[in-house]
Amino acid sequence: MSRFFPPIGVLPQMFCAVLMAALPVGALAGDTGAPITLLKRLEVSRLMYRAGLADQDPLMIVAAAKMRKTAPIVPGTRTPEGGTAAQTGPLSAEAMLNTAALLAQGNPALEKLVEDVRFVTVKGVQDGPVYSSTAIAAQKTDKYPGIAFTGGSYAEIYVEGKGSSNLDLHVYDSAGRLVCSDTDITDIAYCGWRPDTADQYTIQVVNKGAGTEYSLVTN
């Protein structure tokens, strides 16, 4: 079956529509109560990418890549108790664009859009959200104790797998109380909360599926 490609003239409008559809409704209405944070952008961009793959839609994948470019992160050295660091990180915008380029073959307008986004640059970051990657066996739980977050500031954790497992995320404070969790059936998980006071937290990543690799990102 051949794929449908939109006329060249409507591509810019469609591209903007896809990007705006990815943002929370509050952002479109000027609501500043729910921050569109870098880690939230990572989550949304990965979900958009997967939707684009499912629909074989290069435009949606390009939009996902452009959003991911707006959320720069830096590598760290954090590993779970007894774990070993892996070399791969979260899916890159470049990898997303490579997929979009394959789907866009034969349509000059889409091919140009892919290349335009490929050369979009963002300011380099010296610090900010930090990611680390590790392998996790099937039915295993990884623990990251002693992760500090500042009181009164929004705290975030994002987990991104390779698309082949079911990863859950749990966050506990120093008293052992669960403060946040994400237990859906995907291998993408996000937690965001605002601690009242500075505290040390324990992060648990639970693999309920097959062995895989994942990246853990904290702000």
What does this structure look like?
- The chain has six helices and nine strands.
- The longest helix has 18 residues.
- 30% of the residues are buried.
- The radius of gyration is 18 Å and the shape is globular.
- Strand 5 and strand 6 form a beta hairpin.
- The chain has two domains: 111 residues, no CATH class; 89 residues, Jelly Rolls, CATH 2.60.120.
- With 219 residues, the protein is an alpha+beta fold.
- The chain has a five-stranded mixed β-sheet, with helices on one face. The chain has a four-stranded antiparallel β-sheet with strand order 3-8-5-6, with no helix packed on it.
- The chain starts with 10 loop residues before the first helix and ends with a strand.
Which strand order does the major sheet show? 1-2-9-4-7
Low-confidence stretches: 1-29
Radius of gyration over C-alpha positions, nearest whole angstrom: 18 Å
Biggest beta-sheet profile:
5 strands, mixed
* Total of domains: 2
User: Helix coverage percent of residues?
Assistant: 25-40%
How many DSSP H or I helices?
6
Distance between the termini: 44 Å
Q: Structural class from helices and strands?
A: alpha+beta
| Global mean pLDDT | 86
Shape: globular
**Percent of residues in beta strands?**
25-35%
Number of strands: 9
Order of helices and strands: HHHHEHHEEEEEEEE
